[in-house]
Design goal:
alpha+beta, 33% helix, 367 residues, three-stranded antiparallel beta sheet
Length: 367
């Protein structure tokens, strides 16, 4: 039983669902039949061709259902947060709470203003930086909302656009039967391959293989390039959660976003125009895949241009230097004196502390 449960952890369970379920009703049946026999701890969002859209919070033994149709707002929002404690560890004080509140407020504002769209979900929500109180942080920032933050750097621990977010996406569906007048294959999957702040979205349709630039056995060229760009935006190995806001957008209007955001907006607008035409005159699948290939390649070219603009002046330097670095201590071992040398990428407040092996502060050398 233990081995069977392990096979049905989050990823294995999703594999089973994708291979056997055609509708929300069949997914519910799968959940019912595996209660007590899986090792799931997570949120599963399910949509189907009937127009159903449901969020499930799933533990190993039970599940909770949140139907968008039953919600008076018409939508359900989850981040890495569950309203029920699926892991049995308690939910109070989790950082996901802040992301959940921020996402709820943001999507609610969009829905109230009739501006809930793929463009806003991809362009704003997926790249949303906020602080511990769910207040948005502008890009670029200077003090970044925290009194002791490094100049220009955002701590992403509480942001929707977190340092460990690996991609962004949105599905643009079609009207469900019987109102549908367009083929189901016009459902469009928008994907930001890579950390959303470091890449741009392109559309995909369920008609054939993905474009070569977005496909591969283990990874994809577009994703690899986004990972390289990420090294500019999150430059510190010592403090991996810090994003350099000036790498994204500087006070002169430059930075990576000066390339990425206009290009993404153009891809979105071009695609919506093409979809409107296709609804009137459905194209061949070859035409759709050729269009998909052209947009994915355009996204790659824009990202490459953005990277070359922001890359180190010396190509041999590889990734940019970290935002904060501490040189080797010398002499080491020492008695009674040694020298410590620290370097910041740009001017700002710094604090250098000595800690003992238990993490207790022994001395503050610089503040």
């Amino acid at each position: 039983l233990g081995a069977a449960r392990a096979e049905r952890a989050n990823g294995g369970f999703m594999r089973d669902a994708l291979g056997s379920c055609r509708s929300v009703a069949e997914f519910v049946a799968l959940l019912d039949s595996t209660n007590g026999g899986r090792d799931t701890h997570g949120n599963f969002g399910v949509i189907d061709s009937t127009g159903a859209a449901v969020m499930f919070e799933v533990s190993p033994d039970t599940f909770w259902t949140y139907d968008a149709e039953a919600d008076p707002r018409g939508f359900v929002v989850r981040t890495n947060f569950a309203c029920h404690d699926t892991a049995g560890t308690g939910i109070d004080g989790l950082p996901g709470d802040e992301r959940f509140v921020r996402a709820q407020n943001y999507v609610g504002d969009l829905a109230a203003g009739d501006t809930l769209s793929c463009a806003n979900l991809l362009g704003r929500l997926a790249r949303d930086f906020s602080n511990w109180a769910s207040r948005p942080i502008d890009v670029p920032c200077h003090a970044c909302g925290e009194p002791d933050s490094l100049y220009g750097y955002i701590e992403t621990f509480f942001s929707i656009c977190s340092h460990n977010t690996v991609c962004g996406g949105a599905i643009q569906g079609v009207a469900p039967p019987p109102a549908a007048t367009e083929p189901a294959w016009l459902s469009t999957l928008w994907v930001q391959l890579g950390q959303p702040a470091c890449t741009l979205a392109s559309p995909y349709w369920p008609l054939g293989a993905a474009p070569a630039v977005a496909d591969g056995d283990t990874t994809a060229p577009l994703c690899d390039l986004a990972a390289t760009v990420r090294g500019v935006v999150f430059p510190s190995h010592q403090f991996p959660r810090l994003v350099d806001s000036f790498a994204l957008r500087d006070d002169a209007g430059g930075g990576l976003w000066s390339h990425l955001l206009p290009a993404e907006a153009a891809i979105l607008a071009t695609t919506q125009e093409r979809l409107s035409y296709w609804r009137q005159a459905p194209p061949s699948w070859e035409t759709v895949l050729a269009f998909e290939d052209s947009l994915a390649l355009a996204a790659y070219d824009v990202l490459l241009t953005a990277w070359r603009t922001a890359a180190p002046a010396d190509p041999a330097a590889g990734t940019p230097p970290p935002a904060v670095s501490l040189a080797a201590i010398g002499p080491n071992p020492f008695n009674p004196r040694t020298t410590l040398e620290a370097t910041l990428a740009r001017e700002g407040r710094a604090q250098l502390e000595i800690l003992d092996l238990r993490g207790r502060r022994v001395a503050v050398l610089v503040d």
